[in-house]
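[Automated response] Your request has been received and processed.

Submitted sequence:
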Amino acid sequence: MVQKMDDDDEEDIPVPINNDLERRIADAFEVFDHAGNKTVDIREIGTILRGLGCCPTEAEVQEITVRVENTEAPGSVHLSKFLPYVSQVITEHRYEPASPESLLEAFRVLDPEEHGFLTKEYISTLMTQDGEPFNQDELDEMLEIAIDPQTQTIPYEYYINQLMHEPTGEDNIYNVADRVESEKPPPPPPPRRMSDYLKATEDLV
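Generated structure:
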C-alpha cells in the first residue's frame, strides 16, 4: 500500500544544491513557491523556464510537466524532481533561444522578393494559423513592438534588433551550465580486468 505524503513530508525532502547552475534554477523556482514548501503550481513551469532564459514551446512545456509533476499531489511540482531534470535539460542546451542570425534567415525565407519587410496581415495569418499558433494577446503584444506605425509593416531587421537582447557571460544560463560541466573532475578510469593484466604481461615477454 502506497502512503500519500502530506505537505510536511514533502517539505522535509532534502534538495541539495551542488553548483551555481542548480542554485540559479532553485532561486527561479522559489519565486513561485508561495507556501515555502519547495512546491509550485504546475502551471508556473513555463514561466519559470522562460525566466531562466529557456524558450520551450507549449508542447515542450507539457512534456516537461509530465516528467516532473508530483504524482502524489497532481497539479504541483516539487523541487526535488524539477531541479535535476531542468539542470540536465539546460546542460544539454535544449530549448536554447534562437540566435539573431537564425531569426533573420527565417524572416528572409518569408520575404523571397527581399522587400525587407512583411505586412501586418501576412504575419498575423502566419502567427495564428501555422505551426504553434499565437493567441490574440500574444499576437497583439508582438505587433505592438514589430509594426512601424508610419508604414504599418514589419521591417524585420529592425524588429529583430529591438527584440533580441542576448545575455552575455553568466547572465546566460547555458554559459553557467557549460562552466559547471567543465569544472567537473574527469571520471575515474574503468577498473582493469585480470585479462588486461595477463595480456600486458604477455606483451612484455
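Summary generated for your ticket: The domain at 100-161 is CATH 1.10.238.10 (Recoverin; domain 1). The chain has a mean pLDDT of 84.
If you did not submit this request, please reply to this message.
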